[in-house]
Structure to design on (683 residues):
């Protein structure tokens, strides 16, 4: 009996567990968007890619009985969406934000259309690694069941952070994002670089969707995303286009999102709507605290249509 | 507008054809029959219609009408509780010729459905939920609902026998009367087994938020709740998450036992097929549709899922006995002496509210033993 009573410890534990469980889609979508925006384009369509990725992963996992094939299919579908966005945006006078919104609606609609027959069946889930096995408290074990995708996301943010600074590919993406003219003078084709960057970004968003439908919450429904793709795009600005910042911001959002249910479960029941707003209030506070009247957004790629 | 004109012209042609065949004196009879035979019924859902939950329960009811002669069914899913529903209603009336509309979600009623009632006085509207009041609302509107709180009481009876930690969990969407009655009924059912049982409630604030529902379920299990039920649009996520954490679950809206066959105890389900058939029979017969429709287990509006393999003998016995009692009618879940969890008296000694009591439809409290707050 006592082993199951953890009382107020449930709150920090839930925030930790929530940060790990909820943040993974945010990590992948925001890393993908960071790559795209670093190359000078904004792809607002990642919400649609996320939903379509969730549907594709679930459908393929149901049909082949393998969650890994589902993951692969979601990444491929995301890649297609990203390449499509990148291809349309290379034409002159095309607005990348408008195309993104169109693709967001298109991706969700297409996912609902193809996803109908897959709401009922049950797909195999992606495996988790029980890092909590050392503890004999079931709550701790549950909170520390970490999905492999979370670890991949963490590693990826580190690799991207390093690659943007130290590799040729990273520098190419950055120069294209900061100045098309400079890139052309170097003999680079900005459109090709942006096409690849948007494609990779889409593939990562597709993986984020696969996490939603194949691990947590772990089922395909049309309401699975509830706007997480859009929030992740906003996180990129919040994180100042820094991959490590994206990871931290995703953790913060995941943990803050777990606060509301956790507080209610220990009996803090007044004002739960306010607790649910915690992630957004936190965002506002950090944005205001780090803003400056004397300089524009630090780290913003110069070619972005919002900073031009 | 073109469609309306076409419809009129078609009716005109029918009328003149009938008039020619049968003579002018009997012409009105075939017209009204022709109209009834072409009756179209519209259903509007707030979410996808195969969500293992609220919308699926309604869609199954709508599907049962598809075999009824002379009735065609039009449906639209994923309609938000905004001005969008007004557009959907207008297109169902103007383009499909619907003469009876069921906007099934709670938030459609005021102001959206009421606005449409005023705009289309010849069309009948019946809203699922408890809000129609004959002093305030037009006569072409109405409401229907089932006493599903009784089902949650039965869920509670089984949960009370099954729980070892004596703590139950409830994932709820919004603190509206129907939800509060379900939470209270669930706890009181469990307390009929053991009066020390408590129930922790978590409100998610929305009818369908998959990730937050999963978080809420995890938080409840973390705090030791070992039987979980819910009142959200799609219990799929709650059922799967709770079963995944090793807790037992009681279902809601529809039968979720395929999602967790070992952990599913029983569930309170809607049986809308019966209700919709009743309305449509009235429509075909040409009798006025009732404005205020209610029913419970005995009327066939609500049913229980078959008991799962984890339900013990004692639970099964009390479940059957309570169900038999309810089928007789007049069973009261809320009966005195009973206090709210803030200490206010909600029923004095000897006072009892049967399922039909209209007071229950404006419930604004959680009873003693429920850990949670309505605001």
């Amino acid at each position: 009996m006592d082993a199951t009573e953890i009382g107020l410890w449930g709150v920090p534990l839930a925030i930790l567990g929530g940060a790990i469980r909820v943040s993974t889609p945010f990590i992948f979508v925001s890393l993908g968007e960071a790559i795209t925006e670093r190359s000078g384009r904004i792809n607002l369509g990642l919400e649609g890619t996320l939903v379509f990725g969730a549907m594709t992963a679930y459908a393929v996992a149901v049909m082949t009985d393998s969650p890994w094939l589902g993951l692969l299919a979601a990444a491929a579908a995301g890649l297609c969406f990203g390449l499509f966005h990148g291809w349309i945006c290379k034409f002159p006078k095309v607005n990348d934000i408008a195309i993104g919104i169109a693709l967001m609606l298109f991706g969700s609609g297409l996912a609902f259309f193809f996803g109908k027959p897959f709401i009922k069946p049950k797909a195999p889930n992606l495996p988790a690694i029980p890092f909590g096995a050392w503890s004999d408290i079931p709550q701790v074990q549950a909170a520390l069941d970490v999905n492999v995708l979370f670890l991949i996301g963490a590693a990826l943010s580190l690799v991207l952070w390093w690659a943007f600074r130290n590799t040729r590919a990273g520098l190419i993406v950055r120069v294209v994002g900061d100045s098309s003219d400079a890139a052309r003078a170097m003999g680079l084709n900005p459109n090709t670089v942006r096409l690849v960057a948007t494609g990779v970004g889409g593939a990562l968003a597709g993986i984020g969707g696969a996490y939603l439908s194949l691990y947590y919450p772990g089922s395909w429904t049309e309401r699975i995303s509830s706007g997480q793709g859009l929030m992740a795009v906003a996180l990129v600005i919040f994180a100042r286009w820094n991959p490590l910042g994206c990871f931290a911001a995703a953790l913060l959002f995941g943990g803050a999102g777990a606060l509301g249910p956790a507080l209610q479960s220990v009996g803090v029941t007044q004002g739960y709507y306010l607790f649910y707003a915690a992630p957004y209030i936190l965002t506002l506070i950090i944005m205001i605290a780090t803003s400056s009247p004397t300089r524009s957004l630090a780290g913003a790629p110069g070619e972005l249509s919002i900073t031009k | 507008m073109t469609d309306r004109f076409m419809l009129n012209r078609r009716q005109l042609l029918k009328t003149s054809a009938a008039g020619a065949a049968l003579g002018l004196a009997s012409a009105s009879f075939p017209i009204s029959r022709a109209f009834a035979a072409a009756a179209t019924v519209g259903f509007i859902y707030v979410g996808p219609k195969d969500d293992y939950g609220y919308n699926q329960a309604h869609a199954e009811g709508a599907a049962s009408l598809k075999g009824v002669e002379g009735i065609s069914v039009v449906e639209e899913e994923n309609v938000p509780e905004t001005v969008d529903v007004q557009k959907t209603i207008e297109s169902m009336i103007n383009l499909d010729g619907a003469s009876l509309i069921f906007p099934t979600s709670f938030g459609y009623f005021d102001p959206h459905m009421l606005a449409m009632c005023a705009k289309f006085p010849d069309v009948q509207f019946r809203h699922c939920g408890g809000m129609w009041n004959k002093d305030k609302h037009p006569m072409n509107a109405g409401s229907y609902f089932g006493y599903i709180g009784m089902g949650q009481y039965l869920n509670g009876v089984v949960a009370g026998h099954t729980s070892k930690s004596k703590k139950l969990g409830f994932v709820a969407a919004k603190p509206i009367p129907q939800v509060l009655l379900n939470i209270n009924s669930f706890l009181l059912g469990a307390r009929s087994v053991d009066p020390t049982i408590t129930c922790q409630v978590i409100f998610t604030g929305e009818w369908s938020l998959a990730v937050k529902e999963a978080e809420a379920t995890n938080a409840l299990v973390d705090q030791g709740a070992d039987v979980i039920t819910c009142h959200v649009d799609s219990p799929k996520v709650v059922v799967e998450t709770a079963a995944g954490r090793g807790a037992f679950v009681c279902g809601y809206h529809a039968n979720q036992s395929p999602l967790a066959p070992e952990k599913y105890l029983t569930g309170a389900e809607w049986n809308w097929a019966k209700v919709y058939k009743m309305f449509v029979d009235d429509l075909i017969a040409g009798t006025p549709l009732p404005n205020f429709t209610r029913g419970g287990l005995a009327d066939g509006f609500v049913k229980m899922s078959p008991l799962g393999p984890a339900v013990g003998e004692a639970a099964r016995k009390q479940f059957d006995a309570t169900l038999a009692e309810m089928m007789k009618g007049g069973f009261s879940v809320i009966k005195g002496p009973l206090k709210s969890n803030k200490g206010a008296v909600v029923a004095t000694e000897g006072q009892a509210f049967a399922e039909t009591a209209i007071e229950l439809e404006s419930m604004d409290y959680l009873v003693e033993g429920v850990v949670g707050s309505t605001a």
About this structure: Chain B touches chain A at residues 47-48, 50-52, 78, 165, 200-205, 208-216, 218-224, 234, 236-237, 240-241, 244-246, 259, 371-373, 375 (CB under 8 Å). The first strand of chain B starts at residue 40 and ends at 44.
